[in-house]
Design a protein that fits this description.
- InterPro entries: Nmd3, Nmd3_N, NMD_SH3, OB_NMD3.
- Belongs to the NMD3 family.
- This is 60S ribosomal export protein NMD3.
- Acts as an adapter for the XPO1/CRM1-mediated export of the 60S ribosomal subunit.
- Residues 17-246 form the Nmd3 N-terminal domain.
- By secondary structure, the protein is α+β, with helices and mostly antiparallel strands.
- It has five domains: 1-39, no CATH class; 46-152, Nuclear Transport Factor 2, Chain: A (Roll); 153-246; 266-407, no CATH class; 419-425 and 433-485, no CATH class.
- The chain is 17% helix and 32% strand.
- The strands form six sheets. Strands 1, 4, 5, 6, 7, 8 and 9 form a seven-stranded mixed beta sheet that branches. Strands 13-14-10-12-11-25 form a six-stranded mixed beta sheet. A five-stranded antiparallel beta sheet has the order 21-20-19-22-23, with no helix packed on it.
- A hairpin with a 7-residue loop joins strand 7 (94-101) and strand 8.
- The longest helix is centred in the middle third of the chain and has 14 residues, at 202-215.
- The protein is elongated.
- The chain starts with a strand and ends in a 19-residue tail after the last strand.
- The model is unreliable at 6-10 and 489-504 (pLDDT under 50).
């Protein structure tokens, strides 16, 4: 405890304390510090021990009346929360400084050192330093209480896609992780053909639905079920269900458009290849390089299906190739792709190398292929495809083979891959044994498509040392170190980054 006063001039003399007679510099109270301490305690009324409620399950602190906050030890957020507990009792003093004193992280004690000032006895300003101890008391928050009661969710978002391949789901998972929309979900359950997201409030579920509608082409239906009704307060308790259906088209699918839709997209061919699925379906005509985008509303107005699934991809070898330089499009044609090159190629199945059977087709992969390269494609000449629009097409306009992508040695690509992706923690039910192959396909798509990985957080895999030799460089696309992020790992015992601790 000490006085706060202006410095005395050199000519000013001392006075005697009115209580004990000790010589002191003049002050408004005419008392020494020891005597003032016996007369006045400016920290009176401020509690020296306060209770703070903490939820063990979600590790959040209660900020009265009903807000739960995530605060790391020694952080500014926790300092503000503790000071609010003392705010009502500190109206008559002026807070000068506040800071934490070190305590053992598991002691369930938080000590705070406070410095306050107050005007006492004839205008003398007294300053005092004291310690307040906050006792952490466990209390389960409402959200965790509903989880433990097994009847916790108020809304569920059911995301479905009726396809064999899960490329769109893997891409969607990375977008959700990047924007941290999975943090509000109480539970995430993976089932056949989709994922269910459970939420404690309808607002969080609606936020997820809005995000999905902006991210992937889809349509949504909403329903709700009455759980209880209080006739006295006229309040209703509903459980809401949002059913989101994503278009059943994935990257590398071959589709057949309706004549009306193909005409509206710039008179492009009906047989197209899906090169990417983002908020729209990106299509390319392998005969003309004409490209178009189909959004969700257009798709549900003029729906079309995938003609083949990835399991039907066959491996071909390029026997001969001729780049087409001057391709003239018809009247009313749309935009052509400047990232692809049109070529005419003769290919032969690797499974039919002992025969003379070859296939002629046009492809949009002229910038990647050379004679002798392996390429994956669909064999339409020997396939029995039942499609409404394909059956009505002129057989001369249906290609024998549609090439999809260049083939590389998968084992080499896995050995050289020094990056990884994060995954959402979820309950898995009824997963397919083919999931690992599909996930590897998605990783290869990220390596091959720079535009696709712009929206994906790619992390450097420090635990994996890529094995590489001179013979491994087969020209396969790779992701540069510039595009990789360092994965954050928090080893702090306090559970996060906090401020520096005060020590006495």
């Amino acid at each position: 405890m000490e006085y706060m006063q202006a410095p005395a001039s050199s000519s000013q003399g001392n006075i005697l304390c009115c209580t004990c007679g000790v010589p002191i510099p003049p002050n408004p109270a005419n008392m020494c510090v020891a005597c003032l301490r016996t007369q006045v305690d400016i920290s009176e009324g401020i509690p020296k021990q306060v209770t703070v409620h903490f939820c063990k399950q979600c590790e959040r602190y209660l900020q009265p009346p009903g807000t739960w906050m995530q605060c790391a030890l020694e952080s500014r957020e926790l300092l503000a929360l503790c000071l609010k507990k003392l705010k009502s009792s500190m109206t008559r003093v002026r807070l000068i400084d506040a800071g934490f004193l070190w305590t053992e992280p598991h002691s369930k004690r938080i000590k705070m050192k406070l410095t306050v000032q107050k005007e006492v006895m004839n205008g003398a300003i007294l300053q005092q330093v004291f310690v307040v101890e906050f006792v952490i008391q466990s209390q389960m928050c409402d959200d965790c209480h509903r989880v433990e009661a097994k009847d916790f969710w108020k809304a569920v978002v059911q995301v479905r896609q009726k396809t064999v391949h899960k490329k769109t789901f893997y891409y969607l998972e990375q977008l959700i992780l990047k924007h941290k929309l999975h943090l509000n979900a109480l539970n995430i359950k993976e089932i056949h053909e989709g994922i269910d997201f459970y939420y404690g409030s309808k607002q969080h579920a609606q936020k997820m639905v809005d995000f999905l509608q902006c991210t992937v082409p889809c349509r949504c239906k909403t329903s709700q079920r009455l759980i209880s009704h209080d006739i006295h307060s006229n309040t209703y308790n509903y459980k809401s269900t949002f059913s989101v259906e994503i278009v059943p088209v994935c990257k590398d699918n071959v589709v057949c458009l309706s004549p009306r839709l193909a005409q509206s997209l710039g008179n492009m061919g009906q047989v197209c290849v899906c090169v990417r699925v983002t908020s729209t379906i990106h299509l390319i005509d392998p005969r003309t390089l004409q490209i178009a985008e189909v959004d969700g509303n257009t798709y549900w107005r003029y729906p079309f299906n995938s003609l083949c699934n990835p399991r039907q991809l066959e491996e071909f070898i390029v026997m001969d190739m001729d780049i087409i330089r001057d391709q003239k499009l018809g009247a009313g044609a749309g935009v052509r792709s400047n990232k692809h090159t049109l070529a005419e190629v003769w290919v032969q199945k690797t499974s039919e190398m002992d025969t003379s059977q070859q296939y002629h087709c046009r492809t949009f992969l002229g910038h990647l292929l050379n004679i002798g390269d392996l390429v994956l494609g669909y064999d339409f000449a020997n396939s029995n495809i039942n499609d409404e629009f394909l059956n009505k097409m002129n057989p001369q306009h249906v290609p024998d083979v549609v090439l999809i992508k260049k083939s590389y040695d998968r084992s080499r690509r896995v050995r050289r891959r020094n990056w990884k992706l994060q995954e959402m923690s979820r309950d898995r039910e009824g997963t397919d044994t083919d999931d690992e192959r599909q996930y590897q396909d998605f990783l290869e798509d990220l390596e091959e498509d720079e535009a696709l990985r712009r929206n994906v957080n790619i992390y450097r895999d420090v635990a994996k040392i890529p094995v590489e030799s001179d013979t491994d460089d087969d020209g396969a696309p790779r992701i540069s170190l510039v595009e990789m992020l360092e994965e954050l790992s928090l080893s702090d015992a306090t559970g996060g980054e906090g401020d520096g601790m005060m020590t006495d």
